[in-house]
Design brief:
There is one protein chain. The protein is α/β, with parallel strands linked by helices. The chain folds into 2 domains: 151 residues, Carbamoyl-phosphate synthase small subunit, N-terminal domain (Glucose Oxidase, domain 1); 209 residues, Class I glutamine amidotransferase (GATase) domain (Rossmann fold). It has 10 helices and 19 strands. The protein has a 10-stranded mixed β-sheet, sandwiched between helices. Strands 1-2-8-6-4-3-9 form a 7-stranded mixed barrel. Strand 1 and strand 2 form a beta hairpin. Helix 8 packs across helix 9.
């Protein structure tokens, strides 16, 4: 069965279909990871995007029960050079074709993904239509033209929990209030491993609701879309600053920056993959980090805000990867310290958060 990809610049790709028989419009992006495709597909931060995998073979170890980052696939489509047809991994519960079919996601294989990636790098994250249905090219181009680019808006309501959820293990030592703007399961697991009770709040929760549980610390999660459009989240974060230790990850990093008055800008094609070098300015160590974001904070504005220190910088393009405000007990990073998929170089940041909460507990006694 034929599948087609239509880019907003007029480019068309024709390949073979896998996954669901449907048509979707989204923002095209590429991910450079060589493994971890299931974690990528189930990462809520990819809501509304069509993911191009630069690794040539995707799906070779199937889908497993322990590699979900959320309950379902959140992207709008999948582009690969080759999708594995058979799987021999004993823990696999489905092929990638079956996985995409289950969640009504279309896939296209057999196209030149290197050419597509070069187009994205040159022209940016274009609005794109993917179809595995029998519609005419004229219909496809018209649907692409008339469909709104949702990725410039607030997408967090589509991926956030609707009710408060509590996760904990016996004898939890710290209570973390986690703002769910599209949180990955690995972030929650990283906190549980460190003896935390995690109270997960919807993105729409007020700062009063968060403070009412008397947490030892507040974590602001990753998520999709335009950070400047998350207006209620920014407002609530402003009212939390200085009251508890705060740790922001990815979108959480951007929302914290906006709460301080630092603007964000859209990157041309974003940072997505498990191999991005980031320099820790406090230690001088180069950390290899997993990343997934399409926006960054404006470095020029940081000098205008008193008390903000830049802690991490992206080696490839110099974008700000981490900030800290010592007087308010706040720090954040643009990359993903929980990995999954990716390297573990930055997992120490969770230990740093634990240390901040420990110091806070002592100050209250």
């Amino acid at each position: 069965m034929t599948a087609r990809l239509f880019l907003d610049d007029g480019t068309k790709f024709v390949g073979s279909a896998f996954g669901a028989k449907t048509t979707k419009v989204g923002e095209i992006c590429f991910n450079t990871s060589f493994c971890g495709y299931q974690e990528i597909l189930t990462d809520p931060s990819y809501y509304g995007q069509i993911i191009t995998f630069t690794s040539p073979l995707i799906g070779n170890y199937g889908i497993t029960e322990d590699a979900f980052e959320s309950q379902k696939i959140h992207c709008s489509g999948v582009v690969v050079k080759e999708a594995a047809k058979s799987v021999f991994y004993p823990k696999s519960i489905a092929t990638i074709d079956e996985f995409l079919k289950k969640y009504e996601i279309p896939g296209i294989e057999g196209i030149d993904t290197r050419k597509l990636t070069k187009i994205i790098r040159q022209k940016g994250a274009l609005k794109t239509l993917i179809t595995t249905e029998d519609i005419s090219d004229k219909e496809a181009w018209e649907q692409l033209k008339t469909t709104e680019n949702i990725y410039l808006g607030n997408l967090t309501p589509f991926v956030s929990r609707k009710e408060i959820e509590i996760r904990k293990r016996e004898n939890s030592k710290y209570k973390v209030a986690l703002y769910d703007f599209g949180v990955k399961e690995s972030i929650i697991r990283s906190l549980l491993k460190r003896n935390c009770e995690v109270v997960i709040f919807p993105s729409t929760a007020t700062y009063e609701e968060v403070l009412a549980v008397n947490p030892d610390g507040i974590l602001i999660s990753n998520g999709p879309g335009n950070p400047e459009a998350v207006e209620s989240g920014i407002s609530n974060i402003k009212n939390l600053l200085g009251k508890k230790p705060v740790f922001g990850i990815c979108l959480g990093h951007q929302l914290l920056s906006l709460a301080f008055g630092v603007k964000t800008t859209k990157l041309k094609f974003g940072h997505r993959g498990g191999n991005h070098p980031v320099k820790n300015l406090e230690t001088g160590v180069i950390e290899i980090t997993p990343q997934n974001h399409g926006f960054n904070i404006e470095p020029e504005m940081l000098s205008e805000i008193d008390g903000i220190n830049v802690t991490h910088v992206n080696i490839n393009d110099g974008t700000v990867e981490g900030i800290e405000i010592p007087d308010l007990n706040v720090f954040s990073v643009q990359h993903h310290p929980e990995a999954s998929p990716g390297p573990n170089d930055s997992k120490y940041l969770f230990d740093k958060f634990i240390e901040r909460m420990s110091q806070y507990q002592k100050s209250q006694n």
